[in-house]
Amino acid sequence: MEGARRPWFAVLNVVLLGAAVVSFMFTDIYSGEVLRGVVLPLLDAAFVLYFILLLLMLRYRNRTDSSARADQLFRNDP
Q1: Which of 17, 18, 60, 69 is most buried, judged by most C-beta within 10 A?
Q2: Are 44 and 29 in contact (CB under 8 A)?
Q3: Each residue's pLDDT tens digit in the chain (78 positions)?
């Protein structure tokens, strides 16, 4: 139900995925242009790192069940 509470996050990821696909399509590291040869490859690397971290976050959340213990970080029970 986490996705139902934050639909903007899902929309953001879909937009970023679309931007990543477009960036990968127009990347040419052998191009003499600055945009296609430098900027887009750097964006490609940033997109790959973002999606890897996103997948790792989702796996960690599913494995630790952080939604059930989210308030325990701030509680000080003796």
Answers
A1: 17
A2: no
A3: 454 567 888 899 999 999 999 999 999 999 899 999 999 999 999 999 999 999 998 888 777 765 566 666 566 655
Rounded CA separation 2/6 (Å): 7
Give domain limits for the chain.
8-66
Axis-axis angle for helices 40-64, 7-26 (nearest 10): 150
Question: How does DSSP assign 31-58, residue by residue?
Answer: -SSHIIIIIHHHHHHHHHHHHHHHHHHH
pLDDT at 66: 56
CB contact at 8 A, 44 and 20: yes
Closest CA to 29 of 40, 18, 21: 40
Token code pair at residue 33: 């242009």
